[in-house]
Amino acid sequence: MTEAQAIVFVIDDDEAMREALQNLIRSVGLSVEIFASAREFLTSQRPDAPACLVVDVRLPGLSGLDLQRELVAAEITVPIIFITGYGDIPMTVQAMKAGAVEFLTKPFRDQDLLDAIQQALERDRAERQ
Amino acid sequence: MNVPHGGEKVTEPIKSNHDVPLEASRPEGAVPLESILCTEALHRRPWRPPDYGKENRALVALATALADSPRTILHTLAETVLEVLQADSAGLSLLTNDEHRFYWAAIAGAWQPHIGGGTPRDFGPCGDVLDRNVPMLFTHWERRYPYLRPATPLAEEGLLVPFYVHGKAVGTIWAIAHNDRRKFDAEDLRLLESLGRFASAAYQALASIDDLTFQIAAREKAEAAVRELANGLEAKIRRLVDSNIIGIFICGLDGRIIEANDAFLRIVGYGRDDLVSGRVSWRELTPAEYCDADDRRVAQLKATGTAQPYEKEYFQKNGRRVPVLVGAALFEGRLEEGVAFVLDLTERKRAEEALHQAQAELAHINRVMTMGELASSIAHEVNQPLAALVTNSNAGLRWLAGQPPNLDEARECLRRIMRDGNRAGDVITRLRSLVKKSAPAKAWLDLNDTIQEVLLITNAEARRHQVFVRTELAALPPVQGDRVQVQQVILNLVMNGIEAMKEVTDRPRELLIRSRPEESSHVLVAVQDRGIGLDEQSLERVFEAFYTTKPEGMGMGLTISRSIIEAHGGRLWPVAHRDYGATFQFTLPTEGGSQQV
């Protein structure tokens, strides 16, 4: 049985950043879906496939950490990679404790992000078996 | 005709300490008039032969007295009656102007203390005499007229004769005997009637004298008032001119300066000799660019007689310019001459300049401080397009490294890189223009653009505090203003709004920015938060310098914002909301509503 195509969800309210991330992830052959807000993501139909989230911590409305909390509460174990414009250590610690895979500060090295994505997808695949 | 103005005392019936009502009513048990009259007895009584010599001497003495001292003639008359009739009391009663009462204008003899007292017109001996228009002899009149009881000593007999002016009875002349030692007779009646005729003449003379005196006095008083007014006015004008607080000169519309005070000469730096030699012409003192304005004022002067004060400049003798405020008025009747008032504005201009500088300095400090508060957000704002740019570059390289290279995707990446680079550059340019110290420059602004420019800078700060910024911007006519300063005001208001919502957790943090054209040629910008709001005290104090509710604020933002808006001819004010939050709004005049700057 062939496994479903892995998918990366990008949530960022900044359109330029959203598109740049989509472009970068596509360039290594992964599928990407983009969302402008956490609410938009939560209400979307998600395919049954290995996945990970790339989320800006500071989202308007429901923040990245809020989203993480909601997912934990709903027992959705999709791994999360946080990116942020601020080097905010307490927030990083909090996110990591709650199960975040990686925490990247903008601007980050593209290879770091892509590595983190691969790692997260591996983890999700393992979780799903 | 006037009654004598002399001793009229109509309000006190009897001057002694007796209380007699003004309008005595007829008491129930009053005896009939006939019972106190004994007029017929006069003719029954034996009478003395007339002493014409004595009578004549008395009349001559009275006439002399009237000529010499008319003021006391009524009293002299009373004394004459007393003496000629050998009565105990004698006097004159005059009808008051309202004809309600008689008052005792003059009394001699025992009743002298009652002078100024009197009796009612409709119920008293004088009234009875006037009603019947005949002389009457009374006995113990207090039996019918109880109010006369306090008039002591009581009258055993009272003889009254009416006297007339122009055929109309105006009073009585009377003699009283206080005991029965002396009974009045027909000769007494004749003498009293004779003296009554004199009383009439004296009364008329006195009235015309009084009338005349009154008229003369009135005229003199009016003349004195006019004189005083003229003197006072002249003194006041002199004082104004000589005080040299403001420059004053008298001039012809052609430019001649006919007369000027020292203050004016000091303002323009000329000496009095220059003035005398006719070297000073206000037209020549005026720099060319003010000539049109001057011509307009001259036209206004000719049309209305005055020229509203306006600001201009004069050349001083040394060639320097002096800023002044000038108003003028034409002299009545002389259409080519007028007086001008000149106020030296040098000091005021200097103070204004210093104030502007201080305000600009403060405004700059406020901008720099706001930028300081915004620093991390701004870093983020610049970081955001840079991060996108780096990511796009990486993606581009990856598309090119593919086999075969994906040129379309790589081209798209480059386009985005360019866009992100421009965006970062824009933010930095805007920031620099806000922090830079620059001379204020008025330009036509679309406030909606200004709002968007500010939001570009505050976006990140809003995001950082999870504040949702919403705009409702209506199409606006342009306003004239300094771009940086107006940006600063909006920036302050937006930052305050975000700040006010920092602690809010129980409702969405929303900042609403609205703009709309107002009536009377203004546009309105309102920044509404859903924050902690303002209490009454804060509402009054927010515009005070150094008043702040923020722990790290300096309390200058709103003060500076208000002074900027007011300098632009607008208004800035807060509105507290009943539930929560506050709105700060300002108006600025558009072309039609802008004041002269």
Kindly describe this structure.
The complex is a heterodimer of chains A (129) and B (597). Chain A has 129 residues and is of the alpha/beta class. Chain A is built from 5 helices and 5 strands. Chain A has a 5-stranded parallel sheet, sandwiched between helices. The model of chain A has no long low-confidence stretch (mean pLDDT 85). In chain B, the strands form 4 sheets. Chain B has a 6-stranded antiparallel sheet, sandwiched between helices. In chain B, strand 2 and strand 3 form a beta hairpin. The longest helix of chain B is centred in the middle third of the chain and has 58 residues, at 186-243. The radius of gyration of chain B is 50 Å and the shape is elongated. Mean pLDDT of chain B is 82; it is low at 1-24. The interface between A and B is medium-sized, with 22 and 32 residues.
Number of separate strands of chain B: 18
Give the overall average pLDDT of chain B: 82
- Number of H/I helices of chain B: 15
Cross-sheet strand order for the largest sheet of chain B = 3-2-1-6-5-4
- Greatest interface (CB-CB under 8 A), with counts per chain: A-B, 22 and 32 residues
Low-confidence stretches of chain B: 1-24
Question: How are helices and strands ordered from N to C of chain A?
Answer: EHEHEHEHEH
Largest sheet of chain A: 5 strands, parallel
- The proportion of strand residues of chain B reads 15-25%
Q: What strand order characterises the main sheet of chain A?
A: 2-1-3-4-5
Instruction: Determine the structural class of chain A based on helices, strands and strand pairing.
Output: alpha/beta
Oligomer: heterodimer
Distance between the termini of chain B: 69 Å
Strand-residue proportion of chain A: 15-25%
**Number of helical segments of chain A?**
5
Shape of chain A: globular
